[in-house]
Amino acid sequence: MTDTVKFVLDESRMPRHWYNINADLPVPLAPVLHPGTHQPISADDLLPLFPGAVIEQEMSTERDIEIPGPVRDVYRQWRPSPLYRARRLEQALGTPARLYYKYEGVSPTGSHKPNTAVAQAFYNREAGIKHITTETGAGQWGSSLALAGALFGIEVVVYMVKVSFQQKPYRRAFMESFGAECIASPSDTTAAGRAVLAATPDSTGSLGIAISEAVEMAAQREDTHYALGSVLNHVLLHQTVIGIEAREQMAMAEDEPDLVIGCTGGGSNFAGIVFPFLGDQLRGGKRMEFIAVEPAACPTLTKGRFAYDYGDTAHLTPLTKMHTLGSGFVPPGFHAGGLRYHGMAPQISHLADLGLIQPRAYEQLECFAAGLQFARAEGIIPAPEANHAVKATIDEAMRCKESGQSKAILFNLCGHGNFDMQAYTDYLGGKLKDHEYAESEVAIALAGLPSITR
Amino acid sequence: MTDTVKFVLDESRMPRHWYNINADLPVPLAPVLHPGTHQPISADDLLPLFPGAVIEQEMSTERDIEIPGPVRDVYRQWRPSPLYRARRLEQALGTPARLYYKYEGVSPTGSHKPNTAVAQAFYNREAGIKHITTETGAGQWGSSLALAGALFGIEVVVYMVKVSFQQKPYRRAFMESFGAECIASPSDTTAAGRAVLAATPDSTGSLGIAISEAVEMAAQREDTHYALGSVLNHVLLHQTVIGIEAREQMAMAEDEPDLVIGCTGGGSNFAGIVFPFLGDQLRGGKRMEFIAVEPAACPTLTKGRFAYDYGDTAHLTPLTKMHTLGSGFVPPGFHAGGLRYHGMAPQISHLADLGLIQPRAYEQLECFAAGLQFARAEGIIPAPEANHAVKATIDEAMRCKESGQSKAILFNLCGHGNFDMQAYTDYLGGKLKDHEYAESEVAIALAGLPSITR
User: Fold this and answer.
1) Distance CA B173, CA B56 (A)
2) Confidence class for position A356, pLDDT limits 50, 70, 90
3) Percent share of chain B, pLDDT over 70
């Protein structure tokens, strides 16, 4: 058996700044538009929802943004996270490729999400905020914000899509263990929720409805803000701590990636590992390939349109230019719940449009097979989302085997699968199937896009 | 908010030896007896079940036993594990005590169990063994052996108590994800299982039956051995890597514990953190207090008898002198499944009998309350077993607050609660209750002890 090869950064070398890719974009992002006026939005428009410091980050083009001391203090509980060379997987595949993975499953909630949850809770506490509302589907984001709220003394209210609330009682218990309130959405606590219940008393909810409820609650109350777990610039910014660490750890390994791989739902874990390397390239550094892996049943980057769209189904959020399947599109119920979003982060969409990152889509079953192959070699069962990155990595490693090339491939193992054993139970029991891409439903959803040409 | 204070040992300082407390016992352990003859057992008697290297460790009085290179290579995936100062919990309690915890939840299966699973799988592979059988109740041990088997190319067969097999499909999926075979016990794969099924077709199984099935299967086949996850000397030995690391980390903190706390089921995680410190004391080092915390509904150390008893209900195992509630006693179904064992490790029983460690028992509900208090301060939800150690730590910290003493208290956070959210769901939903200690059932079980006076 081959050695474990682990690269651990000393705590003293944990990043002091996040990296803002807006500073290095060859073409700036399209502006965010107000949902009512379709004119570029101002910082003031966002103040009812977010603290000033977060809005500033959302709009900033400053390259290095300081990580506040109290955020670093919490990060230090699990950061710097380890980076491994997957020597046992290399051996199992018989590939000449050098495979590396950054492991974010060491956080208390088992994924990368606390990197931004902790930062957002800190800025809100600094702004005197007592309550934060949010939505959650699979529950990974809600759990992370619940944790961050407990640490910063902020009450967290999570609107959880009703069907998940019923099917995932453990995720609810996890959030409640940290003192968060978890409400099945649609609920009678908001006008948006009551309207849905009046029309459809047995509604099982959707992420779109849950966002509407969380936003409504936050907008109405003085001491209450809203938080989002992906998509927005500031969220992706907070995740860059992953790639900044990985860059140092690759240097410890005396290696440099030729290829960096991450899965993409809203885009935050992909951005986290890729942006620091891509930024180096944009400033004249080594050229690398960057592969964004998405589910074939929700192929935002590979089949979506790059256009202005809303972030929610109820059209309460600002309009952003992004790859979208249409905000009316409801992705099928595959198990990588964190990748079931109709849109994609504007920054990632923009980079894909510029040809700086390569999107790729995989089916569910081949991703689970890859995940189990990884688990049996490396000892960690990945989250279903992360299996997409594993699959692309194995494919690239096998391509190296065919060509005899020895590429260095780095991927983000953004979370473990401890809370996803139902998915593995179904897979192992032969009960999972691939979901066809709902081409006609997407066509209908895309026909409903607002007509904005900028 | 107070800083995270984490002590990380450099990989180069990961222990090279396990510590064998048999070398320093003031009075030697009572001999292990053959179940048939009641005479001291020989190494040869154990050869059908365990590899020679493991039997040697079981009987050794050598103080430092080298950890083989390939075992250290796997350990390095998550070891050295972190030791934290619980500053946020101290602050929440307002205690002058200095609270530290060693965190074993960073292993791939989320507990300390892989420390011995990896070692046992290695020694079996060296002995040319192709299959290992074992039993599991809650599933933590079975998961860890499944992981170790995957890494060393050994096929693992886990007899899982039928009621757990049905109630904990996720644990089964976890084991199967690593390629292990999981069989509901009683099963028709063994004579022992068939006998039970013939007499009680709807038997929900017990740990005792599962042990009989695993032992029978191992004894019958040339290339098959059996493995146990706690109780035996070699298992406790492998866990001492925890305490050896903790001792170095306490030195990094420029502190030394006055009090070391662990929960006790079979005894392995308690031994892991305590024995290295206790060994120092036995050789003339600093006097410390050692608290073994057990569930009040299965109070082996606090109410059991120190006598010869069998390890299983079917009386196939050797007889060891230990604190026992009687091998016929079936503990009630409280949620700390890892602490539901009628006996206690002979080494720990012996040390308790010598007055070198202090046992203490707590009820289930007060342990869950302590666990949630810990989670909200420190960000980690403990396993229900570990909550017993948390409860004792908080009690001792509050005692310090009353007395104004500033003791250094170290406890073993032996696992996280990610796979125990049903227990938290029940607790948060007000559905858990304390279990009365079944005094009369224990009296009946104790009456059935074999009459051996040594």
Assistant:
1) 34
2) very high
3) 100
What's the one-letter identity of residue A181? Answer: E
Q: Please tell me the number of Cα atoms within 13 Å of B297 on its side-chain side.
A: 21
| Chain-chain contact of B73 with A1 (C-beta, under 8 angstroms) | yes
**Domain end residue (candidates: B189, B215, B232):** B232
Burial B263-288 (b: 16+ CB within 10 A, else e): bbbbbbbbbbbbbbbbbbebeeeeeb
Looking at this predicted complex, what is its ipTM?
A: 0.93
| The pLDDT of residue A338 | 79
Q: Which helix (H) or strand (E) holds B246?
A: helix B241-252
Of the candidates B6, B73, B153, which has its C-beta nearest A76's C-beta?
B6
Please count the other Cβ atoms lying within 10 Å of the Cβ belonging to residue B449: 17
Distance, C-alpha A356 to centroid of its chain: 19
At residue B172's C-alpha, the angle toward residues B166 and B173, to 5°, is 125
DSSP label of A284: T
- Among A215, A232, A249, the domain-final residue is A232
In this structure, the answer to whether residues B93 and B169 fall within a common structural domain is no
Contacts of A222 (CB under 8 A, 6+ apart): none
- Asked if residue B262 lies in contact with residue B351, where contact means CB atoms within 8 angstroms, the answer is no
| Block residue for tokens 């980050």 | A57
Distance from the A152 Cα atom to the nearest Cα atom in chain B, whole angstroms = 7
B272 and B365 in a common domain: yes
The single residue listed with the structure tokens 């909810």 is A205
Dihedral sign (CA B237, B238, B239, B241): positive
pTM for this prediction: 0.95
Distance between alpha carbon B45 and the CA centroid of its chain, in Å? 25
Mean pLDDT for B440-450 is: 93
pLDDT digits (tens, 9 = 90+) for A161-212: 898 888 888 899 999 999 999 999 999 999 989 998 999 999 888 887 898 8
**Do A93 and A391 form a contact (C-beta atoms < 8 A)?**
no
Which of the four pLDDT bands, split at 50, 70 and 90, describes residue B20?
A: very high
Kindly calculate the radius of gyration of chain A based on its CA atoms and give it in whole angstroms. Answer: 21
Measured distance CA(A257)–CA(A250) in Å, rounded: 8
The whole-angstrom separation of Cα A97 and Cα B56 is: 42
Name the closest residue on chain A to residue B89, using Cα atoms.
A151
Would the pLDDT of A1 be above 70? no
Bridge partners of A19, per DSSP, are A64
| Structural domains of chain A, count | 2
How far apart CA B290 and CA B287 sit, in angstroms, is 10
A7 interaction partners in chain B (CB closer than 8 Å): none
The 3-state DSSP composition of chain A as helix, strand, coil percent (nearest 5) reads: 45, 20, 40
Q: For residue A4, list chain B residues with Cβ-Cβ distance below 8 A.
A: 73-77
Best of B10, B111, B376, B413 to mutate (most A CBs within 10 Å, chain A): B376
Q: Which residue of A has its CA nearest to B92?
A: A151
Q: Which residues of B touch A417 (CB under 8 A)?
A: 177
B202 and B306 together in one domain: no
Structure tokens at B38: 């009641």
CA distance A106 to chain B (A): 7
pLDDT digits (tens, 9 = 90+) for A301-355: 999 999 999 988 778 889 999 999 998 888 887 787 778 888 999 999 999 999 9
Q: Residue A78 above 90 pLDDT?
A: yes
Contact between chains at A376 and B108 (C-beta distance less than 8 A): no
Task: Identify the CA nearest to B101 among candidates B386, B411, B391.
Answer: B411
Q: How far apart are CA B76 and CA B428, in angstroms?
A: 37
- Cα maximum dimension of chain A: 63
- Give me the CATH number covering residue B279: 3.40.50.1100
Do the Cβ atoms of A312 and A270 come closer than 8 Å?
Answer: no
Amino acid at B8: V
Domain membership flag for residue B227 = yes
